[in-house]
TrEMBL record, chain A:
Organism: Levilactobacillus fuyuanensis
PANTHER family, per the entry: AMINO ACID ABC TRANSPORTER ATP-BINDING PROTEIN, CONSERVED COMPONENT OF ABC TRANSPORTER FOR NATURAL AMINO ACIDS-RELATED
GO molecular function: ATP binding
Annotated protein name in UniProt: ABC transporter ATP-binding protein
Gene3D superfamilies per UniProt: P-loop containing nucleotide triphosphate hydrolases (3.40.50.300)
Automatic annotation (TrEMBL), chain B:
Protein name (database record): Branched-chain amino acid ABC transporter permease
Keywords: Cell membrane, Membrane, Transmembrane, Transmembrane helix
Primary location class: membrane
Organism: Levilactobacillus fuyuanensis
Alphabetized InterPro entries for the sequence: ABC_transp_permease, LivM-like
Membrane-protein topology: Multi-pass membrane protein
């Protein structure tokens, strides 16, 4: 088994009387591609929000394993968590709409470049060098996702499917160790979905990162992930390889059963 | 790199031409004291409104207290140049005004920039009022009577050059890694945070930057007009700067220039109308807001890059 990257131990989230995430423990290892499935309202997005600090946990521990040792992510701001190497996309797309595609990606690189305040306001050569480096890095990422031709367009002008792809590029631009994708194929046709799946798999290998994928399309998840978590009513219903999950009686009853 | 050089030279040329044109008119006697006064007021208003546009248009924070930071610059200059009545004294006072304004902006910004929209507007308005009341009650600022006989250490040329400098610096700031981070917070705070951007830090950067340029405007105002009083920096003064930003287009520095010039000229022309002046002025504002709610220029920017490349691209799309 490979070494752990992120673990959540018995995390709970209550929204008033509603328990959206109930005592869930998960672990995501280095270089893994993991699926997170479950019916609507199961708490998948909420789990992402807890792990990325968007909403604080009611209780439980979240730990990140780094070269420097184990780091607790409890109580950290989303920006700190992002800087620690966790990035994500959003189920209801959150791009910087008025800004160009290129700028959307360069913004995600903000913390990786440092030209200095004075250099930027007085435009010394170092400013232009840093900008050129940033732009080149952003263009490389855009090229992988076939977005070069729309680099100068405002993000809001892009079709829905392309916006989802841009969100993945933007998240990758933060140089994450762990990437959370919340229904990246939502609203895409089967062909686009298949393309995207291949791309996600390729990115996970080429960038040597861990990806956690929420997806409703079962065929997509089953084909691509190494391991799956199944959530239902906020609680963990099952964990295992796609094969194990497909033959898990509880899952068949609660989830696959609905579809059949 | 070469393209950047050409681009920068084009802007420099525009600024030099502007300077020479005003200088020539001055020399030919076309510009009398009255018109010079108008030009200087426009220049100072451009400095003030550009900084406020950075805060409102680019960082998306609705500040209603810009005149407070202007007052700090004005009083720093008013007080210091009475003892050191030299150009060096003026610039020294300006730097001190900038530093104090930045510190004040930090103190005001850290608790208030967490607020949103209307709340932030009220909080910044309150902060500016506190600054004004402090000035009103301190001995060193000469209380409600204000300061007069401030040495005239500033000419229209000083204002022109500082207007160009602050605009260059502000526009460079906006078109950099810093500016993009600031705009991302305006666009979507949650997404910006998820990309590792600390929203409070970048909002604060824009707010403090805007306060620093407001202090420059205040210093110039004090040294040119030579008389200042706390009442010059009340809420109406903040609103006057806000009007320039909104009228020109929130998020357009070009619009800020156009609006400052249009309003400056309108104000001068209407001087002859006596009490009718404010009514006509207000009516003009209402009409523009009805027919062009996004301001005169929306968020359009004049750019030499625009004029060249973008138009060509646009054409090829339409073809
Ligand atoms: N901020 C919130 N306040 C109150 N309730 C919330 C909040 N966010 C989520 N919930 C509730 O928590 C439960 C889990 O929601 P969540 O969005 O995590 O589900 P999901 O598994 O992502 O579903 P879907 O597949 O529809 O995206 C739902 O009942 C939802 O209404
Ligand atoms: Mg969801």
């Amino acid at each position: 088994m490979s070494s752990p990257l992120l673990t959540a131990q018995q995390i709970v989230k209550n929204f008033g009387g509603l328990t959206a995430v109930a005592n869930v423990s998960v672990h995501f290892d280095q270089n893994e591609l993991i699926g997170l499935i479950g019916p609507n309202g199961a708490g998948k997005t909420t789990l992402f929000n807890l792990l990325t600090g968007v909403t604080p946990v009611t209780s439980g521990a979240i730990s990140l394993y780094t070269d420097q040792g184990v780091q607790s992510l409890n109580g950290k701001r989303p920006a700190e968590i992002a800087q620690a190497g966790l990035s994500r996309t959003f189920q209801n797309i959150r791009l910087f709409k008025e800004l160009s595609v290129l700028d959307n990606v360069r913004i995600a690189m903000t913390n990786h470049y440092q030209e200095g305040f004075l250099a930027s306001i007085f435009r010394v050569p170092k400013f232009y060098r840093t900008e050129a480096d940033m732009t080149l890095a952003a263009q490389k990422l855009l090229a992988i996702f076939d977005l070069t031709s729309v680099a100068d367009q405002p993000a809001k002008n892009l079709p829905y499917g392309i916006q989802r792809r841009l969100e993945i590029v933007r998240a990758l631009a933060t140089k994450p160790k762990l990437l959370f994708l919340d229904e990246p194929a939502a609203g895409m046709n089967p062909e686009e979905t298949a393309d995207l799946t291949r791309l996600i798999r390729q990115v996970q290998r080429d960038f040597h990162i861990t990806i956690v994928l929420i997806e409703h399309d079962m065929s997509l998840v089953m084909n691509v992930v190494e391991r799956l978590y199944v959530l239902e009513h906020g609680a963990l219903l099952a964990e295992g390889t796609p094969n194990e999950i497909q033959h898990n009686p509880a899952v068949i009853k609660a989830y696959l059963g609905d579809e059949a | 790199m070469k393209a950047n050089f050409k681009y920068n030279i084009s802007w420099l040329a525009v600024m030099v031409i502007g300077f020479v044109a005003i200088d020539a008119c001055e020399f030919l006697g076309i510009i009398n004291t009255f018109i010079e006064n108008m030009l200087v007021t426009i220049g100072i208003n451009i400095i003030l409104a550009t900084g406020l546009n950075l805060i409102i248009g680019f960082s998306g924070q609705f500040s209603l207290g810009h005149a407070g930071f202007m007052a700090i610059g004005a009083y720093a200059t008013g007080i210091m140049t009475q003892t050191i009545a030299t150009p060096l004294g003026f610039y020294l006072s300006m730097v001190i005004g900038i530093v104090i304004a930045m510190i004040a902006a930090l103190i005001v910004g850290i608790p208030t920039l967490r607020l949103r929209g209307d709340y932030l507007a009220i909080a910044t308005m309150g902060a500016a009022e506190i600054i004004r009341i402090l000035i009103n009650n301190l001995k060193i600022t000469n209380g409600a009577a204000g300061l007069f006989n401030i040495p005239p250490l500033v000419t229209w040329a000083t204002v022109y050059v500082l207007m160009c400098l602050t605009t260059i610096v502000t526009v460079n700031f906006i078109h950099s890694r810093n500016g993009r981070a600031i705009m991302s917070v305006r666009e979507d705070e949650i997404a910006a945070e998820a990309m590792g951007i600390n929203p409070t830090r970048w909002k604060l950067a824009a707010f403090v930057f805007g306060a620093a340029t407001a202090a420059i405007g205040g210093s110039l105002h004090a040294a040119y007009i030579q008389t200042i009083a706390p009442g010059d920096f009340n809420i109406m003064a903040s609103i006057a700067i806000l009007i320039i930003v909104v009228l020109g287009g929130v998020g357009s520095i070009t619009g800020t220039f156009v609006a400052a010039i249009v309003l400056g000229a309108l104000d001068t022309i209407l001087q002859n109308f006596g009490t009718l002046r404010m009514i006509i002025y207000s009516l003009a504002l209402i009409l523009i807001m009805i027919f062009k709610p996004s301001g005169l220029l929306g968020n359009w920017e004049l750019s030499f890059k625009h004029l060249g490349i973008h138009q060509r691209k646009e054409q090829s799309i339409h073809e």
